[in-house]
Amino acid sequence: MTTQTLDLPCGDKVPMLTYGTGTVWMKSAEDDVDRATVDAIKEAIDLGYRHLDGAQCITPISPSPHCRKSTNAVEQDYETEPELGLAIEESKVPRAEFFITTKAVSPIDVEGALVTSLKKLRMEYVDLYLIHEPFSSGGSEEILQEAWRGMERCREKGLARSIGVSNFLIPHLESILKIANVKPAVNQIECHPYLQRTELREFLKKQCIMTEAFAPLTPITKASPGPIDAMCGDLAKKYSVSTSAILLRWIIDQGIVVITTSGQRKRLLEYLEQLSRFKLSNEEIFQISQLGRERNYRAFFVDGFGKDCFL
Asked: Whole-angstrom Cα distance, residue 220 to residue 216?
């Protein structure tokens, strides 16, 4: 079982393999508690997952003419905080053993939104609170800066141990860094061989902001066939693991926290067991990266990024 962690500025250790409670587990009614979602999260907890990533909600994002993508990769609403909180409570695992992330639905009143989230989550604090995306600001630097001041208040009041952002590009980060008393601890971004975010990741590294990657399996779930398929297949045979494990290792072995999900117990257990058995060499990481650059593909927030969707 993989136990790799990274250190946040506050001293907390972040498990590098994260169970995401969005995308797979969506529901149509906000007030309903979906038992299947609760049970799925409890199963992940039972297998050993302790870094659980959630969100208040994602608003629908329509396809953009600037980006090449599949028509089924459009955002949908999800509201799974009540299920996440109930699953943790029913698991009987102490709250202190978990690293819980949630995200603000918009940059407006992030403190009030977190208070509401904590009630749904049945807890007094989250380990990491993120601004979900910068696009709701309408490009306003002032709105983003005020949102970050609100995030800092959440940290000061103990509602969130660490604060960060998600889906931010360099200009968005520069806007809040101008006024930040506390830098974002994390920028959670879509990242995989077909969307490597090299310039952004280098900027984050220089600013000592941790990168977290979501949608890491996109090359085999939404963008296949593609140029990395044969390479990943060969490596899967070499290490006697799945191609999913190869893609997750491509992320983790670059020092990036990875978020994935599945509704299948077998698949979740496979991730834990297989990732503990091998690491990719620097040459293998490089080869996958080189092949990945032959294709550009973004699966999420396409309309929000517009012409910048591959940055």
From this structure: 9
**Distance from C-alpha of 194 to C-alpha of 228, rounded to nearest angstrom:** 9
**Catalytic pick from 49, 78, 194, 271?**
78
Residue with tokens 């003419």: 65
How many domains is the chain partitioned into structurally?
1
Backbone torsions φ then ψ of 34, nearest 5 degrees:
-90, 110
d(CA 302, CA 275): 30
pLDDT digits (tens, 9 = 90+) for 194-245: 999 999 999 999 999 999 999 999 999 999 999 999 999 999 999 999 999 9
- Helix or strand holding residue 200 (H, E): helix 198-206
Please report, for the domain that includes residue 106, its CATH number: 3.20.20.100
Q: Could you report how far apart the first and last alpha carbons of the chain are, in Å?
A: 34
Place of tokens 């600001």: 137
Classified as helix, coil or strand, 271 is helix
Annotated binding-site residue? 66: no
**pTM higher than 0.85:** yes
DSSP secondary structure letter of residue 138: T
253-274 pLDDT tens trace: 999 999 999 889 999 999 999 9
Is there a catalytic annotation at residue 78? yes
Domain of 77, in residue numbers = 5-308
